[in-house]
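<goal> How does this chain fold?
<body> The protein record starts here
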Amino acid sequence: MSVPRMSQPPLSQPDAAAQPVFNQPNFDIAALRSLAAGIDLGSFAKAADRVARSSSAVSAQIRKLEEQAGLPLFVKSGRGLALTDAGHTMLRYAKRIIELNDEAATAVRGANLDGWVRIGLQEDFGEAILPGVLGRFARAHPKVRIEARVARNAELLEGLDANRLDLALLWGDAASAALAARDGIVSEEIAHAPMRWIGAAQPDEGATPFVRVSDEPLPLVAFDRPCRFFGAATAALDRAGVPWRVAFTTPSLAGLWAAAAAGLGLTVRSRYGLPASLRQFDGAPLGLPELPSLPLVLLRRASSATPTVCRLAEITGQSVRDATAAFG
């Protein structure tokens, strides 16, 4: 059988941006996982445990990535290593590749899964985390119906205890630790979120900036008690000898943001979901104490530990870790 001849285009100089596909390196997903885990955990020794490889094997993976990239991904910084510009780019794409790979694997294996999954999250994550989590999960499990509840810790703990939720993302406190200690509840600490002094943004962003009057009590905008953030902030102020007063209380995060943006006082929260009308303050120039970090925990009912629920928990945890790492 004869093969018809095809006309050839005129020869031209090769375009670096349009090289043949077979000339492009095929980055190994296992190596990309090790890179992402090392940055996420701050140590490739810890990453080796997460990816179930030896430290030497992880080091070899990173060297292979650098060889394929043709550029160094790390540079020495003090006693440790820091990402180069190429390293930051590689990390950003590594996370996207890993996410898409895992989404494809889950979708193929779980295409026929159905039923309900019930998840609860703190208000801080309703806009910052929830849309991305639900989008990823729904693409992988289109037949699964999701019930999401955004509420404060006490309501989420009650929902878990009463079997109205399968899993919940909460701020770690005595109540969540008590529930986690019971049989039938699985607890995973997924991040530590630094507390921040938060107030109105600069005037050009449409709000009055916060100015502290040193001889007056510090005005605070707070959630209705009990509130872990309020308790930690006032304890730190008391230890530092800084007088304070409650200027505004609210049962909702939206009310908290609105009052702080209006310049009624400072509030204390994490940076998750921080609106543009607010900014975090360095407490030292204002004579304010440093604030602690709060653990974020994911609680699950053992009786609800289906592959679908476990996958939703995995996506939620990774989304929170990525958001936390983005804060620097």
Observations:
- Residues 29-107 form a domain with the Arc Repressor Mutant, subunit A fold (CATH 1.10.10.10).
- The first strand starts at residue 74 and ends at 77.
